[in-house]
From TrEMBL:
Protein name as annotated: FtsQ-type POTRA domain-containing protein
Domain of life assignment: Bacteria
The organism of origin for this protein: Ancylomarina longa
Keyword field: Cell cycle, Cell division, Cell membrane, Membrane, Transmembrane, Transmembrane helix
Membrane spanning stretches: 7-25
Limits of the POTRA domain: 49-107
InterPro entries xref list: POTRA_FtsQ_type
The UniProt record lists the keyword Cell cycle: yes
Protein's UniProt keywords contain Transmembrane: yes
Length: 243
């Protein structure tokens, strides 16, 4: 019985200590004031769409006297919403550190293709449009010609994803041209030929035939013997020699 009472008292003391400690920490935390701003841009070494100064401008516009301000007086959710409006930002997370820093973690949108239509724009990994930047140009696959929103939705986004997710084709195909008949012409990095790909029908089979040509045919004949490769025919690949 005595042991049971002792255990109960021990737990009461522990819970009481934790409650007092938590109240103390919470009180000290609420007394914190901001001393600095720290912006962390994910993948900033490879992409420069969003800079620290872009984010700091938004914060300072919303809270001109942020320095020395209590952490209770700055609405982090509102800041996140404002930063998320930057067209190159995928997600912003705002929080404070115990040393008084206002910390902002930025996840940039990642373009997978550049569309040369009208003023031009990118498509990101989710297939959404994002504007070009005057500060940074992403080295991605380029598509030109007759490119419409319907084409992107129905087939182009799928084709681009296939290319960029295959290590061989990602390094080999640099440009795509789309004509009025929704036929594709591929421009490779290596070799001086153009590839008449035709429509998107059976595109995986076409790339399989093209891969066989590159790895088995061109290894014997050389890369620069032909100026045209035609994949539009069902059971054959037609190569046109240079004149």
């Amino acid at each position: 019985m005595l042991k049971k009472i002792t255990n109960i008292l021990l737990w009461v003391l522990i819970i009481g200590y934790l409650m007092v400690s938590f109240s103390f920490v919470t009180e000290k935390k609420n007394q914190l004031t901001y001393t600095d701003i720290k912006v962390n841009v994910v993948d900033s070494l490879n992409s420069g769409f969003v800079s620290e100064s872009d984010v700091e401008k938004i914060i300072k516009k919303k809270y001109p006297r942020w320095k020395g301000e209590s952490i209770l007086n700055i609405n982090k959710e509102v800041l996140e919403d404002n930063i998320d409006k930057i067209p190159f930002v995928k997600k912003a997370e705002v929080y404070h550190a115990l040393n008084g820093k206002l910390v902002i973690d930025i996840q940039q949108r990642k373009p997978i293709v550049r569309i040369l239509s009208a003023k031009g724009y990118y498509l990101d990994m989710e297939g959404n449009k994002m504007p070009l930047s005057n500060k940074f140009t992403s080295r991605v696959l380029v598509v030109s010609g007759v490119v419409t929103d319907q084409l992107i939705k129905e087939e182009l986004y799928e084709l681009v994803n296939f290319i960029i997710n295959d290590e061989f084709w990602k390094s080999q195909i640099t440009q795509i041209y789309v004509n009025n008949n929704r036929e594709y012409i591929l421009i490779p990095r290596v070799g001086a030929q153009k590839i008449d790909f035709g429509g998107i029908d059976h595109y995986k089979r076409k790339f399989k035939k093209l891969y066989a040509l590159y790895t088995e045919g061109f290894s014997k004949t050389g890369w620069n013997k032909y100026n045209r490769i035609n994949l539009k025919y069902e059971n054959q690949v037609v190569c046109t020699k240079k004149k």
